[in-house]
Amino acid sequence: MTAEATVSTRDRVRGVANAALSGKGIFIALAVILIAAAILAPNFYAGVNVGNTLRRASILGIITVGQVFVLMVRGVDLSVAAMAGITAIAVTTLDSSAVGILAALGIAVLVGSANAWLVVRRGVPAFVATFGMVLVLTGAQLLWTRGGVSAQAPADLIGLARGSLGPIAIPVLLWLLATAASTWWTSRTPSGRRLVLSGANPRMAQLSGIAVGGKQWLAFVISAVLAVIGGALLTGFSGYVDRSIGSGLELDSITAALLGGARFKGGEGSFVAALGGVLVLSALSTLVVVLGLRPETQNILKGVVLILALTLHLPARRR
Amino acid sequence: MADAPAIQLEGIGKTYGPVTALDDVSLTVHRGEVHALMGENGAGKSTLLKILSGVVRPDAGTLRVLGEAVELGRYTPGAARDLGVAIVHQEFSLIPSLTVAENIFLGQERARGGVLREAEMAARARELLARVSASVAPSTRVETLSVAQAQLVEIAKALASDVKVIALDEPSAVLSGAELRGLFEVIRALAADGVAVLYVSHRIDEVFELCSRFSVLKDGRNSGAGAIEETDADSLISLMVGRSLSHLFPPPGVEPGSAVLEATNLEVLGLAAPVNLTLRAGEIVGLAGLQGSGRTRLARALFGDVPILGGSLTLSSSPLRPGSPADAMRGRIAYLPEDRKGMGLALDKPVSLHISMLAWKRLRSRFGGIGRMQERTLVDKAIDALAIKTAKGGAAPVRTLSGGNQQKVVIAKWLELLPDVIIFDEPTRGIDVGSKEQIYGILRNLADAGKAVLVVSSELIEVLGLSDRILVMADGQIVGELPGTGATEESIMRLIASHTTHGKNEAAA
Known about the structure:
The structure holds 2 protein chains of 2 kinds.
Chain A: H1 2-21, H2 26-40, H3 47-72, H4 80-93, H5 97-121, H6 126-145, E1 150-152, H7 155-162, E2 164-165, E3 168-169, H8 170-188, H9 190-200, H10 202-207, H11 212-238, E4 240-242, H12 249-259, H13 271-290, H14 295-313
Antiparallel strand pairs in A: 1-4, 2-3
Chain B: E1 7-16, E2 19-29, E3 34-39, H1 45-52, E4 60-65, E5 68-70, H2 77-82, E6 85-88, H3 100-104, E7 111-112, E8 115-116, H4 118-131, H5 147-160, E9 165-169, H6 177-192, E10 196-200, H7 204-210, E11 213-218, E12 221-227, H8 233-241, E13 259-268, E14 275-280, E15 284-289, H9 295-302, E16 308-315, E17 318-319, H10 325-330, E18 333-336, H11 340-344, H12 351-356, H13 372-385, H14 403-415, E19 421-425, H15 433-448, E20 452-457, H16 460-466, E21 469-474, E22 477-483, H17 489-499
Parallel strand pairs in B: 3-10, 3-11, 6-9, 9-10, 15-20, 15-21, 18-19, 19-20
Antiparallel strand pairs in B: 1-2, 1-4, 4-5, 7-8, 11-12, 13-14, 13-16, 16-17, 21-22
């Protein structure tokens, strides 16, 4: 009987941890981190810090919105960082930012379609298909720039990424817009809800007249397109482009999406909670910097959070 | 102690928090008998089985195995096996990628010096397989076996240790008629060898065919026990639900009207012969046949989910060639799949999402989205109309509902298509008798409301009780038609038997 008691205590702890680290409960975790930051590092709340953290967060946030879509249809998109990287090259090497973004959007539709084709038609696991796409895109990036990736960001993108509309930073505004639109679309419109159901139970969706493959395609294309927007903002925010631009965004976006309640089994996830997940990751990164810890600490911290998010999302083992 | 019962459970009680699963339940199974354990879903059958297999520890009660008192505090699955108590669960515990022999000896491999004695195990496996009349080689991979063969291997695995008591949990749920006959032979042979067999089922007909004694559970209590020959179907059902069979099926309220869906020489991928059938408004047509006879395939073809190769299909006199479920749905055909959880529901999604999904287009608000109030009204109306046991608003995940209420959710969803033709594939599979009665009432109301209803079912009692007309399938073709009144289990089985060649009926899915 004592064994049973410990099990249920452990379950309860797990339940609380799960609630705090997934879905809307992520905001509790965020509050804890923000309070801890106020105590540990008062200059965490310096105006520059907050502004920069939010701008940086919104780039990850926009990409995470796409990741949530893909996770919803039982996929995962590892190619978002590479797509952002390609965008950075496009906007710095082509005639103007506009042409660059248009070209990147074209590539995004192709990349998203290719990912979806592999996953939907060929049955390739999304991990493998999109990882293959990473190699293709990074290879293409090197070919395009003949290996020497290094450029100044175009002035208009810098203006966009560092600019504000009234009191709100433009990237943050775009992030909020993407989150709000996605939330509304998936919860209040037939086509968005069908996408969710396509992931929740594809066979049921198909037998209910839903074009499941089409929804999967849409999710991958949305993800690639949002990666372009994220990539363009990242270019402007950084001010320069190098080989490593965007790297890490794929894992960060998956972590944030998982923290936001998305699951590999599909059909789950909240864009609002994913926003919370992004803020948690960003606050942690900033905290590491502000506290003057070695930058490697950041990776350890992120890794721990990712693993925590993953384990909490595995279905509890049945007795 | 030769005459002591093989299993004697007395005064068993088990509560899960505030829920009483079992209350003062007793069960006695003698050596050499096939004992039916019956009851609705949730009556406590599976809890009792789990106690018997040592997985769950009861709060109260005693257990004697072959007369010897067993200390329940130390009764683990391992102890159960050592005492010769084996359970064959509904979900198979075999590992698909391993061979039959490897599965049989899993965890009790024979080895010398750390090296497996494969020849010895294969020989022993062959013996065990012969005992259950399974015509499979020990070296076959389990994943290549049919469901029936896997079930036999499962039993062979149970027999690998010296088994005194074997409990089978609803084995018939996955087997067709011929396969079931084979299993019955095996069970009878085991009983003849002196093994006590506990056969868990809620199928009345097979209990009468196979078992000599029965025990019925209702709401976690004993509600009756005795000899099979001293009872009948009606009283067994009364023991399970407190109602009798004749009240289960409501009579038709209307005469069949005009033909709604007509198939003429319809060639369906995977079926042996072209199909002719007519579904009329106001009529329930039963589609009977063994598993693998092509029933489901035909139903899915009418719904555009299995390719139609030729012939003609007309819907209200206009031609129809559904290439996808979406096509069929445009023709107002609804199909409720047999695998409700796997194909009919997204279990983690709320009830409301399911009920409203086919009506979303009609629920547009001014802003282009789905109107909250309109949706709420529609969902609440459906919950009322079908008496679905869930909170108003339907916010609960479908997973939390009972099987019967889940099925009602699926029905409510499809009614929003405003269908003219509704195809039910195993409408009451895994549903307790009480909910069955309600589902039958709903089906009859739909027919009375002028819809053409096709019911695919492997439960003959259901087909006979429900149908105004019965189509019988065997070996991938329709082999006969019977009127609803006057048909019997025998007349259906005769039609099937006259067309079934042994062993061939596994081909079509």
